[in-house]
Amino acid sequence: MPIIVNLDVMMAKRKIGLTELSQRVGITLANLSILKNNKARAVRFSTLETICRELKCQPGDILQYVEDKSEIWD
Length: 74
Fold this sequence. Notes:
74 residues; mainly alpha; 434 Repressor (Amino-terminal Domain); two-stranded antiparallel ribbon; 6 helices; 58% helix; Lambda_DNA-bd_dom_sf; Helix-turn-helix transcriptional regulator; Cro/C1-type_HTH
């Protein structure tokens, strides 16, 4: 997948655990874990906004575009 979620990196930088962030942003632990582990297929802007507000970061600190190398060689 060409979009990588670096939520775990930002959480480590801010020294906040999954349970605490889940409580702060009002997202279930299961859904936040899916996002953190790069298993999410989509994320709402409102969710991204809330996470960024709590972590004091920008969306680009959490989401990263990585070009899919397999498409280059086809």
